[in-house]
Specification:
Blueprint: E1 2-8, E2 12-19, E3 24-31, E4 43-44, H1 46-60, E5 65-70, E6 75-79, E7 89-90, H2 98-106, H3 110-116, H4 126-136, H5 138-145, E8 149-153, H6 154-163, E9 168-169, H7 170-173, E10 179-180, E11 185-186, H8 188-194, E12 204-205, E13 213-216, E14 219-228, H9 229-236, E15 245-249, E16 253-259, E17 272-277, E18 285-292, H10 296-304, E19 328-330, E20 348-350, H11 358-381, E21 389-394, H12 400-410, E22 413-416, H13 422-432, H14 438-441, E23 446-448, H15 455-470
Parallel strand pairs: 1-5, 5-14, 9-12, 15-21, 21-22
Antiparallel strand pairs: 1-2, 2-3, 4-7, 6-8, 10-11, 13-14, 15-16, 16-18, 17-18, 19-20, 22-23
Helix pairs in contact: 4-5, 9-13, 11-12
Length: 473
């Protein structure tokens, strides 16, 4: 058996091919344009994303099944009949609905989203974005009146265009704030809250199911799995039992932990209860989720400012940690995610002086990302028992200084696997409906062990976070 996983992410689209022996590799990758039409707005061109998916499928050649991993909260609107998009993709990072969310919070509406979706009120999720489309794009109102409006996350658009099947899966639905995590269905009260017509949303299916056929080399190929990228990564890391944690360091840092029961009550800790995956005719597997909005994006920003030239330049430092010298960076460049959920918080450095160097500043950025990640893991540890080993991947996992610092902050072993494409691997394994590569995940991994902890460092970072929340953008 040979399967292709399409990993359609925030900055690129990749095709990963896996065979039944467990051999897998990326066969094609292409980036897409990021659009920033206004302050706080982030968009993608849906046609460009679709064209890149088709290029990736062509490069993969003949396969027996396809899996699609999607961005999660990114969403758009399109015409049921023509299948043409009537809006850009509003990306998960987009904050255009901040004022709407703030108003709803003041009205006490967060109690509804917490009790039904398990999610705080935040512009991160799809619900307010889809409501914005209905209210602000004239074509959406026209199509709604004609019964032709379709609203959804990017996966539903891709499937509708590629297979003719209008559908999403439970993991993606659980990222919208429109999904009732108890009933596993769209919720009429949540849809009404955000002004989203429930009839325009796609049917919800298990993660590993039949999502239609895509014409490929040799004939139609079934799409056998559809999943949010972070949940696919959780599966790819081999996390299967309660307390297993993975962290992916991409544009943001995303922490997911498997839990045995529906974790709706955990929202008091600032965590997001979510669906990890669901097999047909089986109960869903749940997870706790927490996101740090800026990880690699903070480093890319620093690089664009000229603070360093090459990523290899920041793999080690000749000085003590920045925070031990009272230099702190809070990576709240697009606000603070879990567990604070403060979209207006500001990114900042504290403790700078005339002898602060560009290297010091980048060192503080790496440490700030580690501390923000630790805040999420600590929130999870208050809810479920967390093991001593945490598996990580993504671009920042190749930075030895960062990995060692993260291990020390968390006082956990940090395992960096030799498999670089764990999101695509997890999606491919779902489509293959087996765990043929589980034993290969830990082969040749690098493990970092914690050094002596400095408790005062964590407290200093917490003080800096408090300042970032008081200093609004």
């Amino acid at each position: 058996m040979r399967v292709t996983a399409i990993d359609q992410g925030t900055t690129s689209t990749r095709a990963f091919v896996l065979d039944e022996r467990g051999d897998g590799s990326i066969v094609h990758s292409c980036t897409h344009q990021q659009y920033y039409p206004k302050t706080g707005w982030v968009e993608h061109d849906p046609e460009e994303l679709l064209a890149n998916i088709k290029r990736c499928l062509d490069a993969a050649g003949a396969v027996d099944a396809i899996a699609i991993a999607n961005q999660g909260e990114s969403c758009l609107a399109w015409d049921r009949d023509s299948k043409e998009a009537i809006s850009p993709v509003i990306v998960w990072q987009d904050r255009r609905t901040e004022s709407v969310v703030s108003r709803l919070k003041k009205e006490g509406a967060e109690a509804l989203t917490l009790s039904k979706a398990g999610l705080p009120l935040d512009a991160y999720f799809s619900g307010s974005k889809l409501g914005w489309i209905v209210k602000n794009i004239p074509a959406a109102k026209i199509l709604l009146d004609q019964g032709r409006l379709r609203l959804g996350t990017t996966d539903a658009f891709f499937l509708d265009r590629l297979t003719g099947q209008f559908a999403t899966d439970v993991t993606t639905a659980s990222r919208t704030s429109l999904f009732n995590i108890q009933t596993l269905e769209w919720d009429i009260d949540l849809c009404a809250l955000f002004g989203v017509p429930i009839e325009a949303l796609p049917p919800i299916k298990p993660t590993m199911d039949d999502f239609g056929m895509i014409d490929g080399i040799g004939g139609p190929v079934p799409v056998k799995a559809n999943v949010v990228d972070q949940q696919a990564s959780l599966y790819g890391h081999g996390c299967r039992k309660e307390g297993d944690i993975k962290i992916t360091f991409g544009t943001g840092a995303f922490v997911l932990a498997v839990t045995d029961t529906n974790p709706l009550e955990t929202s008091d800790n600032g965590l997001l209860p979510t669906i990890a995956w669901q097999k047909p005719d089986a109960a869903p597997v749940y997870a706790l989720d927490g996101g740090v909005y800026c990880a690699s994006s903070a480093l890319n920003w620093a690089k664009s400012l000229g603070l360093f030239t090459d990523f290899s330049d920041i793999n080690s430092f000749s000085t003590r940690s920045a925070i031990s010298r009272n230099l702190v960076f809070v990576p709240a460049l697009t606000g603070l995610g879990c567990p604070h959920w403060d979209g207006a918080a500001s990114g900042l450095w504290l403790g700078m002086s005339l002898d602060t160097t560009s290297q010091d500043m980048v060192q503080a950025i790496l440490e700030g990302i580690a501390f923000r990640t630790a805040e999420v893991v600590h929130a999870i540890s208050k809810q479920i028992p967390v093991g001593m080993r945490i598996s990580i991947d993504g671009g920042m996992s190749s930075n030895p200084y960062f990995c060692q610092f993260l291990s020390t902050v968390l006082q956990k072993q940090i395992a960096v696997t030799s498999v670089s494409e764990l999101t695509a691997l997890g999606a491919a394994m779902m489509a293959m409906a087996c765990d043929v590569t589980d034993t290969a995940i830990t082969a040749n991994e690098r493990v970092y062990y914690p050094q002596a902890s400095r408790r005062g460092d964590y407290q200093l970072f917490a003080q800096a976070v408090s300042v970032s929340q008081n200093w609004k953008r």
